[in-house]
Amino acid sequence: MGLFSCLLIGKELLKLIRQCQKQWGYINGFVRDGVAGAFSADIGGETPALCLASIIVLKNRLVSENYQEKAFYWVLVEKSFINKLNKDFVIDFDTLEPYIPNELAGLISKENHCNLLLINLTNENNITFADIFKHKDKQLIVAGEVQILEEEPSPFERIDGLAPLEEMKEKSVAIVGLGSGGSFTAMELAANGVGTLHLFDKDRLSTENIFRHICDVRDLGRKKVDAVEEVIKEHLLSPKIHKYSENIVSSPDKLREVVQEVDMVICATDNTESRTMANYICVVANKPLILVCSFDSARIGEIIQVSPYKSACYECTRIHLKEQGALIEDNNEERLAPYGSQTKDNSISRGTRTDVLIVAAMAAKIALMALAGDSNHTLGKLPYNYITWGATRITEFPNPYKFDMPFVTLYCNYSIHPKCPICGDLQLELVGIDIEEKYYEIIHKLSSEEVKIAQTKT
Question: Quick one: which of 177, 179, 192, 414 has its CA closest to 291?
Fold first, then answer.
């Protein structure tokens, strides 16, 4: 057991102790690595008293295999002694003995090390937690720290006034892809008060995910949707969360259904196929979409904000980028994909945690701006629909992937492209025919033509 402990205890549990008829008793909980947690207290009834905040104590990672009955003592003492201990920090146990019952003093004197919660009866702020241990021929008391837990914590206290919390509570967002960036974005939306999250990911957490993910080794093998939900709740955030393990490319029906009821979709997947599908579903449903990814070993971040039939969709943007020479062809396959574009090794998802999370944070902020709308001036407004960010100085690629200095952010506004098979002039060909079949036919045709053009130029 470490010295200079910190105690976690519920406000309501302290209140129950002060109201009981006893002067001292036991507290059940844990003490480990200098941290103690009070789950319940002996206050004279048939069963120990506990409170809702005790649940938070039991979730502490230090409680595992360390919970015990009679973990430490509590005692009601005069304010003067608590003030003296907090002032002097270390005092002899002999100084405490006149202030506590003889039975408790006898129990403590027999122990080499124990912990004691000292409470003043009249002043709720007059409280301290102490380490008591034997040193040479003396028994010493060292002042510790107390963190009082609320029954219903207010995690948004530090952003009150900075975000429209009441408005965000009514918002609903679907997040497709819960990798490093997607999981972080989900957490940020929850931390800014978004009331409902629909989480899509078909994968389970593996060891290679942990380095950058918000989840850790405790979640290995779990579905990402389950693990991310639990981490969000562990941060005392309480959005309504709906989880889906469908592959949106092979089984898009659930995403189609969810898109009808949300305010926005965020796609943070690591492949072109899923981004294409999310874009298609959102444009057809006339639903705002934000696509976010990092590529070229996460040196480059890309955020596309799609307002269907008002600004460029994902397909429009790709056509614009190809015309600029920003997308390259390799073995008849487009290589602008997360963590892969224009790199020599595309076998793994390379990129530092810092760079990936910076782009995810930018996407989360853009999403919050869009959700708040024009009426909110605190979050601001972003009048661009295509953003790239460079982690380092990059001069070997054309715009918008050319950055003269590290941390440069480039902004573009791409318009609807007339050749876009989703929202351009070609959509007129879809009237009265099988839309799905025609869509993929046009995509294949465009890709084939672009490859031929590229081969001709070379």
Answer: 177
Helix, strand, coil share (%) of the chain residues, nearest 5: 35, 25, 40
String of DSSP letters for 353-400: HHHHHHHHHHHHHHHHHHHH-TT-SSS-----SEEEEESS-B-SS-TT
Query: Across the chain, how many H-helices and E-strands are there?
Result: 14, 20
Note whether 176 and 261 are within 8 A (CB).
no
- CB burial of residue 321 (10 Å; 0-12, 13-18, 19+): buried
Q: How many CB atoms lie within 10 A of CB 242?
A: 18
Q: How far is C-alpha 376 from the geometric centre of its chain's CA atoms?
A: 24
Residue 35 CB partners (closer than 8 Å, separation 6+) = 5, 6, 8, 60, 62
Structure tokens at 320: 């614009």
d(CA 335, CA 448): 15
Contacts for 30 with CB less than 8 Å, ≥ 6 apart: 36, 37, 39, 57, 60, 62, 63, 66, 67, 68, 71
Q: How far is CA 245 from CA 204, 219, 224, 262, in A?
A: 9, 16, 9, 18
Distance CA 370, CA 164 (A): 12
- 349 φψ region: left (φ > 0), alpha (ψ -120 to 50), beta (else): beta
Q: Phi-psi bin for 352: left (phi > 0), alpha (psi -120 to 50), beta?
A: beta
pLDDT digit of tens for each residue in the chain (458 aa)?
345 689 999 999 999 999 999 999 999 999 998 899 999 999 998 899 999 889 888 888 888 889 999 999 999 998 888 888 888 889 998 888 888 999 999 999 999 999 999 998 877 778 999 999 988 888 999 999 999 998 877 766 666 666 777 888 999 999 999 999 999 999 999 999 999 999 999 999 988 888 889 998 889 899 999 999 999 998 889 899 999 998 999 889 999 999 999 999 999 998 889 999 999 999 999 999 999 998 888 899 999 999 999 999 999 999 999 888 887 655 444 444 333 343 334 445 667 889 999 999 999 999 999 998 866 667 778 889 999 999 999 988 888 999 999 999 999 999 999 989 888 765 544 444 455 565 666 566 666 655 555 444 44
* Tokens linked to 71: 């973990």
Q: Which of 52, 47, 50, 42 is nearest to 21 (CA)?
A: 42
Contact indicator for 369, 383 with CB cutoff of 8 Å? no
